[in-house]
Amino acid sequence: MSSNTAKVDVVLGLQWGDEGKGKIVDVLARKYNIIARFQGGPNAGHSIQSEGRSFVLHSVPSGIFREGTDNIIGGGVVLDPIIFQKECSELEKLGVPVRERIRISKKAHLITPTHRIIDAASEASKGKSKIGSTLKGIGPTYMDKTGRNGLRVGDILASDFQARFEALKKKHIAFLKQFDYTYDPDTDVEAWMAAVDYLRTFDLVDGEYYINDRLKSGCSVLAEGAQGSMLDVDFGSYPFVTSSTTTCSGACLGLGVAPSSIGNVYGIFKAYCTRVGSGPFPTELFDGTGEELRRQGHEFGATTGRPRRTGWLDMVALKYAVMLNGVTGLIMMKADVMDTFDTIKVAEGYIVDGKRQDSVPFDTYAEVIPVYREFKGWKCDLSKIRDERDLPAEFKEYIAYIEKETGVPITVISLGPDRAETIFRE
Predict the structure, then answer these.
(1) What is the pairing mode between strands 109-110 and 102-105?
(2) pLDDT at 262 over 70
(3) Active-site residue numbers?
């Protein structure tokens, strides 16, 4: 590598998603030339608030509101043309020049209407074993990718694209015969093809060459993860996971950059925990405290609108995610949600089969009893504080504990949804 080759910094979630990545990428974006999504699809919901304006991004990288910033949808992403067109149209209404700021890797896979049908049929067939899919066709698209049947963005430039689409649709119809599920195979096809025409008007690039060439020229890149580390297909709470690699290694896979290209890894976590859908959640609260976290934190899915499950911070899971990702800096979100609490708890260990352990168990279905440590609440409005020196002693103690346990500094503290409600620590 030449001496002026830049690094790819990575920002990702350390819990089960919904950590507040959108705001942080938007805040950090001013330091970077390129913001790149490297995995996931429109199951992501990255909320951004600024200057009284609120927007939820599903497919578009969170640097889109920054002038002069390149936003790349990487090859590891799965893209639904209909959702992408709708999202871009909304951005254009706000005066955002989407075609100038977005580039799409030809290797990104396309979500087709029948992928969504398969998703719904599969989830319906599982009954009580549902994994909590967003029903956006993400899983079936990744299945076609690994099964080597998929359609990619670059395919829309081929003269026989229509034939390729019809061949995949035919395979899907055959696959759907195993389900007792009624559907119309032509649902949304017309709108999807119109959205593909719209997609053709964008700059479709060989993403891996584009990113590496820009790195060599000294451009800075921020890779934006979707979902969270505990939803990683390999190392998350399987099978209650997403279909992609949500950990730091996913940035290399999804963008086509070498591991040696990775620079800083920013891990985002909430000061408590939330989860949407099924799966283990050792610190989940079913009482008034859990409801208060949900109410104060506005814990409803940005993509699904579903109420999120809420609970105390899980230090065992947080340390696990820090280890997997090689986190160099922690970013704490939403501590202000607990401003009124007298006592705050953190799970610093588990009891599994009657024995204490400090690691995430392999068995997703194991009965896990959290071992809690209690902290005195800070009982003040953190959202008004802009200087670290003004933070209450009780909150500083909470921060110091997390830093000691993880071995990683908390470099950013977010105390509200707006860009301005952020403390950057030296």
Answers:
(1) unpaired
(2) yes
(3) 18, 46
**pTM (predicted TM-score):** 0.92
CA distances from 420 to 24, 47, 391 (A): 11, 15, 16
312 backbone dihedrals φ, ψ, rounded to 5°: -70, 165
Burial class of 198 by CB neighbour count within 10 A (0 to 12, 13 to 18, 19+): middle
Q: How much is the pLDDT for 306?
A: 81
Report phi then psi at 375, rounded to 5. Answer: -125, 150
Q: Would strands 70-73 and 102-105 be described as parallel, antiparallel, or unpaired? A: parallel
Give CA–CA dist 10/45, Å, rounded.
18
Q: How many CB atoms lie within 10 A of CB 287?
A: 7
In the predicted structure, residue 4 carries a pLDDT above the cut 80:
no
172 — phi, psi (to 5°)?
-65, -40
pLDDT at residue 1, rounded to an integer: 45
Cross-strand partners of 332: 269, 413
Is residue 267 a contact partner of residue 276, using CB atoms and an 8 Å limit? no
Containing 115, the helix (H) or strand (E) segment is: helix 113-125
CA nearest to 101, candidates 75, 79, 72 = 72
Helix (H, G, I), strand (E, B) or coil at 344: strand
Confidence band for 152, pLDDT divided at 50, 70 and 90: very high
CB count in 10 Å sphere of residue 111: 29
Tell me the C-alpha distance between 329 and 143, whole Å: 34
Nearby residues of 61 by Cβ (< 8 Å), 6 or more positions away: 25, 35, 36, 37, 71, 72, 73, 102, 224
- Picking from 28-42, 51-65, 118-132, 373-387, which range would have the lowest pLDDT averaged per residue? 118-132
Q: What is the mean pLDDT of the chain?
A: 93
pLDDT at 134: 75
Beta bridge pairs of residue 375 = 344
DSSP H stretches of helix in 287-386: 288-296, 315-325
CB 263 within 8 A of CB 8: yes
The 3-state DSSP class for residue 329 equals strand
Q: Is the pLDDT of residue 2 over 70?
A: no
Task: Kindly tell me if the per-residue pLDDT of 347 is higher than 90.
Answer: yes
